[in-house]
Amino acid sequence: MRLSELAPAPGAKHKAKRVGRGPGSGWGKTAARGSKGQNSRAGGGVRPGFEGGQMPLTRRIPKRGFTNIFKKSYTIVNLRDLSVFAADSLVDEEALRRAGVVKGHPGAIKLLGQGEVTVPLTVKVHAVSAQARARIEAAGGRVEVA
């Protein structure tokens, strides 16, 4: 079978209903919109979420909390993720991306202390937990916060 031989199952596709093409088509004159009213007009209809004047659901349910617009979001990297690096290597954002530990453009990176590190590493990240710092320094490495 070739790509050019692929076809949808028989009966799966329907021709589009072409409305407003004269009385012989069966969908002429009002073009299946009815005769009068909001939905028969061009641009008619109601906006999404409109409930006919009833208080909308989004306004009926209680609101809680707020969104902090100054919140810093971090991409999390744990110590166990650093096991792919050789001894005395520099671990920065570029190295983490090349190793597949972080993907895309992670923004700020924070190092957390889950797992163990057995080789000395120089780690350059944006933030680090106290436990992660202590474990890296215990293994003979060092941490630089950018």
Descriptive report:
By secondary structure, the protein is of the alpha/beta class. The chain has a domain at 74-145: Ribosomal Protein L15, Chain: K, domain 2. It contains three helices and six strands; from the N terminus they run αββαβββαβ. It has helices spanning 57-60, 93-98, 130-138, and strands spanning 74-78, 90-91, 108-112, 122-125, 127-128, 142-145. The longest helix is centred in the C-terminal third of the chain and has 9 residues, at 130-138. It is elongated. It starts with 56 loop residues before the first helix and ends with a strand.
Distance between the termini: 56 Å
Q: Looking across the biggest beta sheet, what order are the strands in? A: 1-3-5
- The string of secondary-structure elements, in order, is HEEHEEEHE
CATH top level label of the domain at 74-145: Alpha Beta
Which ranges are low-confidence, i.e. pLDDT below 50, for 5 or more consecutive residues?
Answer: none
Helix segment tally: 3
Query: What is the tally of beta strands?
Result: 6
Oligomer, anyone?
A: single chain
